[in-house]
Amino acid sequence: MFDDLRQSSAAIHEEEEELARRSLVERMPVFKDLAPQQRLVVALLIFVNVAVLGFGCLLATGAMMP
């Protein structure tokens, strides 16, 4: 009983180590087919989105006056 538990725990640990060794692009197949320029555009769009949402939250809470 404990041997089965130990083996399953070891298998899960090995899978986690394998995932950690793979690069981010290999773990996210959505971005795997994109060219580096396209990935840069996606990253910039996400950055702008976060900046606009953060600015909106600051305005909504009154922490910053326009």
Description:
- The chain contains 3 helices and no strands.
- The chain has 66 residues and is mainly α.
- It has 2 domains: 30 residues; 33 residues.
Q: What does the secondary structure layout of this molecule look like, with pairings?
A:
Elements: H1 2-21, H2 24-27, H3 36-61
Short description:
This protein is an all-alpha fold and 66 residues long.
Features:
mainly alpha; elongated; 66 residues; 2 domains; 3 helices; 76% helix
Write down the domain tally: 2
For the residues shown, what is the average pLDDT? Answer: 82
Helix content: over 70%
User: What is the number of helical segments per DSSP (H or I, 4+ residues)?
Assistant: 3
